[in-house]
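Lab manual, section 2.4: Encoding a predicted structure.

Procedure: take the sequence of the chain (271 residues), apply the prediction step described in section 2.3, and record the output as structure tokens. A sample record is shown.
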Amino acid sequence: MKNKEIKKAVRERYAKTVTRSSSCCGPVQTSSCCGSVSSDAKSRTMGYTDEDLKSVPEGANLALGCGNPVAIASLQEGETVLDLGSGAGFDCFLAAKKVGDTGYVIGVDMTPEMIDKARENADKGNYRNVDFRLGEIEHLPAADNSVDVVISNCVINLSVDKGKVIREAYRVLKPGGRIAISDLALLKELPEAIRNSIDAYTGCIGGAILLDDYKRYVEEAGFRETKFTVKRASDYDADSREVIEKSMEQLPQDARSLTDYVVSVYIEGTK
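Recorded output:
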């Protein structure tokens, strides 16, 4: 798959996700309309509290993450936060409450429909310290040395140039700034059937990289005091479940468990 084709597929996938979430039967669903686990229920398994879920505007939580980066970010009042792949604004709104009126939160997403939804949610919740910007996380629309914390939730695996994303995070951070990232990584290389599936890629699996390679990107970018915490076997995206499982059926019986390959990980580091 060419990089342009992957970006187009990712953008289209998440444009449909946010459009569907706005028209489904009440609470946002993590899979097809009216027949799946609610976004709130899935988010609780990722480490979000009921207080978190109640504190954001309705429609902000699309349950597209694989962890809770705000929980490990140790945000302080007055800090500036940048969210890589901010979606409908869920983590941005949680961060905004942590940094207070003297702080500031920037959400960056490459899907126009997501940006529109996030801005709508910000207006709905009367957030004045949050700014949503259309852009690619490989080319962040933010100045050098301008933010205190970079967060991200299960988005870097979707990038076609993960090393560039990590270097961009380093660039925009102030000296002493830090990253708090939740993402997916591989314990071993995925089978070819999964690597070549565009559905697996847009579902956050096909583009994941080896945990050792992730560590190398973070360290080569210049981060110190790095910490990688493997949390649990990954819950892969429900919309890709059928396609992925059919692909796995082509493999030997002892190689069909995706959890043998993919884990969810928290990544921390300081500039």
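Check your result against the sample. The chain is about 35% helix and 20% strand.
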